TrEMBL record:
It is an enzyme of class 4 (lyase). The lineage of its organism: Bacteria, Pseudomonadati, Pseudomonadota, Betaproteobacteria, Burkholderiales. InterPro entries: ClpP/crotonase-like_dom_sf, Malonate_gamma. The keyword Manganese does not apply. Pfam families: MdcE (PF06833). The keyword Lyase applies. This is Biotin-independent malonate decarboxylase subunit gamma. Its EC number is 4.1.1.88. Gene3D superfamilies: 2-enoyl-CoA Hydratase, Chain A, domain 1 (3.90.226.10).
């Protein structure tokens, strides 16, 4: 599959002062110069699936930044078709590798690293869960493709006819792919159009407020009950859903 957006042009737009990002076997790593400081960068390209090798490489890169560059911001460039579906990866315990990656991201956050995700092309399934959805905030380009599961696969799993799911997708963002729907649900902070360096600067300047995705989903009308349930659990009260 041909990627819609070339990572090199995206990196050049994000870091007009220059960068040292390199690609090896669809894995991106390096540093970008930004407003007089450096930003650590890890990511993937060419819609590559996340197998044990890339999951481990990303985890190693994050731990290297934590060890060698305290409190350095980390940008995750996301372009993946999701978890690699191979018998070999399953037998090696791909779930444990991806869990390890998620723990490394959380460790970096706890050590004071601001973590930002940017879906610049495609984000599917488990490959998105352990990258953009683990970041402090995730953003996307307008023509990015984002979904957890395609409607044909969803129809097979849920036994709901695909035609019905297509109908539901017209009014419910949970069933519909695309950055606009994930923004409505709160999974994306914003969609970046125009000057990417300016968007990155604004994202880095945002105060940390914990996980606010459910609140954003309620505010934007994409997830009406998640924050309600969270509030009820926190206060030990009954959940009222109309």
């Amino acid at each position: 599959m041909q990627a819609k957006n070339d990572w090199k042009s995206i990196a050049a737009a994000l870091f007009p002062e220059g960068h040292s990002i390199t690609e090896q076997d669809c894995f991106l790593s390096g540093y970008g110069k930004f407003d007089g400081q450096q930003i650590g960068v890890i990511g993937t390209t060419e819609h590559t699936p996340i197998g044990v090798e890339i999951a481990l490489a990303q985890a190693q890169a994050i731990l290297r930044i934590v060890r060698e560059h305290p409190a350095m911001p980390i940008l995750m460039l996301i372009d993946t078709q999701g978890q690699r579906l191979r018998h070999r990866d399953e037998m090696l315990g791909i779930n444990s590798y991806m869990a390890h990656l998620g723990k490394c991201v959380d460790l970096a956050r706890r050590q004071g690293h601001r973590i930002i995700g940017l879906v610049y092309d495609q984000a599917l399934s488990g490959g998105f869960i352990t990258s953009g959805l683990m970041a402090d905030a995730c953003y996307a380009l307008p023509d990015a493709t984002i979904r957890v599961m395609g409607l044909p696969a969803m129809a097979r799993i849920t036994k709901v006819p695909e035609e019905r799911l297509l109908e539901l997708a017209q009014s419910n963002p949970v069933f519909a792919p695309g950055p606009e729907n994930y923004q409505r649900m709160g999974g994306l902070g914003a969609i970046w159009e125009g000057n990417l360096a300016a968007h990155l600067r604004a994202a880095l300047a945002q105060p940390l407020a914990g996980d606010i995705r459910s609140g954003l989903g309620l505010e934007r009308g994409g997830r009406r009950y998640a924050q309600t349930v969270i509030n009820a659990v926190q206060h030990g009260s009954a959940v009222q859903i109309n």
